[in-house]
Each structure stands twice: as structure tokens, then as C-alpha cells.
Amino acid sequence: MANIQLADNLRRLRKQYNYTQAQIGKKLHITHQAYSNYETGVREPNLQLLAELSWIYHTSVDSLITQCCNAKNPSSVEVKNYFCIKIENSENDILLTKNEVNLLLKYRSAGEAERKLAHEALDFTER
Questions:
Q1: Are residues 57 and 88 in the same domain?
Q2: What is the pLDDT of residues 90-99, one digit of tens each?
Q3: 25 plus 41 within the same structural domain
Q4: Percent of the chain whose pLDDT exceeds 90
Q5: Do residue 17 and residue 38 come from a single domain?
Q6: CATH number assigned to the domain comprising residue 38
């Protein structure tokens, strides 16, 4: 039985990264028809291909298979520009824009002084 979540994620990620099925097929050394079968759920990629897909899409194999994006059922156009983030210990997903993800990454790589400035600029209070 096909993993519908995997098929949906492959389609969403390919569109998010502006790839064609032919481009992904070339990266994986398969035909675009074979890749299309993965996106439609007709077939499932083997573990090696899943690992390669996770590298192409900068995500984990686990996320490819299980990550769900159902925050208020956004349209495919909206999903294209968002990242689905699973909140730990919660059944809810949230959507982050690319800019929000970049801000989080910059915050995490910042030193303590830069983080303090960010908190002050955004008027966060220490807890």
C-alpha cells in the first residue's frame, strides 16, 4: 500500500524547490515517469532513493515519510512557500515562511549579545 503522506510530501517539496519531475529524475538517475509514480503513490522509492531525496530536499527520511502539513488545509499555492514544522509534544503543525525559518537559523547561530539585542528589538521579556 502506498504511503500517501510520502507522495504528497515529494510533490510539495519538488514544487517548493521549483524542480520538474525530469530534473529530480536526472538527479536520482531514474526516469521522470518513475519519479511521477512516487508522487502519485503508484510506487514507493527504496531506502537508497529515500536517502537521496532527503539530501536533495534538505530534510530527514522520517520527515519525508511522516511530516504532515494540515494547518487549516492550506491550498497548494500557500503550502509551496511554507515549511511545515511539527511542534514537539503536540498534535499541531505550524507553518513558517522561508523568512521566518531564516530568522530562526540566524538567531540560533547568534552569540549571546546578538540574541539579547534581538530580544530587546522585539520587546521580549526574559522568563
A1: no
A2: 555 566 666 7
A3: yes
A4: 31
A5: yes
A6: 1.10.260.40
Distance CA 38, CA 40 (A): 6
Q: Would you say 46 and 4 are in contact if contact means Cβ atoms under 8 Å apart?
A: no
Q: Could you write out the DSSP letters of every residue in 17-37?
A: TT--HHHHHHHHTS-HHHHHH
Tell me the residue range of the domain where 84 lies: 71-127
The pTM of this model reads 0.54
What type of residue sits at position 104? L
Number of domains in the chain: 2
- Alpha carbon distance 2, 10 (integer Å): 13
Contact 16, 28 (CB under 8 A): no
- Per-residue model confidence as pLDDT tens digits over 20-63: 999 999 999 999 999 999 999 899 999 889 989 988 988 888 88
Question: Beta partners for 82?
Answer: 97
